[in-house]
Amino acid sequence: MTFKPAILLYLLCALLSPLMAQGDEQIIRMRPKQGAIDTSHDYFIGLVRLALQKTPEQGPARIVEISTDMPQARALLELSRGNLIDLDWAGTNIEREKLLRPIRIPLDGGLLGHRALVIRKESIPQFGQIKTAQDLAKYTGIQGSQWPDTAILELAGLKIEKPPKFEMMYPMLINRRGDYFPRGLNEVYAEFATLNNPDLVVYDKLLLVYKMPMYFFTAKNNTVLATRIEKGLRQAISDGSMLDYMKKSPVTAKLFPLSKYQGSRKIYLNNPSLPPETPINDASLWLNLN
Prior knowledge:
This protein has eleven helices and eleven strands. It has helices at residues 5-21, 40-53, 72-81, 94-99, 124-127, 133-136, 148-155, 169-174, 188-195, 223-238, 241-248; strands spanning 26-30, 61-65, 88-91, 101-103, 114-120, 140-142, 159-161, 180-184, 200-209, 214-218, 265-268. 35% of the residues are buried.
């Protein structure tokens, strides 16, 4: 079957019409919140907006949150295929960087890998005695089945319950199906405020510490978007607006000043899945709690 040039032109215009209707505006599809407790979602959406504001020379852009709710594993799979979403955030590991294109700028200054423990208030005396991973192994933690952190905790000999969905985790702690829920300092205080449960407490006198940068990811072939986001984030780091954003965001404001963690007991864990390309020697990308 052959087509005349005029017919081919018509078919091509029909296929491109949705994109042409947007003019030169770049549409960035992102996933929705995983429930009301997913307060960090607002932080990352705002960070994308900041990166876009820093790159006006690349044209107008707009974030569109899709209506499809999906767990992290599916979101990253759809992203790798160029389906449903164009940009997502996640803690990195070797497998994810093979599947996706990482933008290697820690979105929280590396604080995802500094984990306070959300515990039941009645457990404070017991957790006050914990100094080592062996001490903590007497108790049961809660962590996502699809999260890279889970492998790190289990490698350290910790007992972990692994629900598949984030919205299941705090109820598990409340219902005594676990003793502690490690959360990054960048996310725990806003989540706890939203939870508003007087029986729980953020126990930040004890921190689990390991290298676990949270990155934005795109599909491997989405060079245009990845380049723009990286450029915008680097500009925001350079001019101080990213740190200022962290200090003012309702999600992360309460973790400052960082000096308050100097007296916290810290259990350092190894992360064998940390990609060798991780920019651990670029001090401008990491916040220092010491």
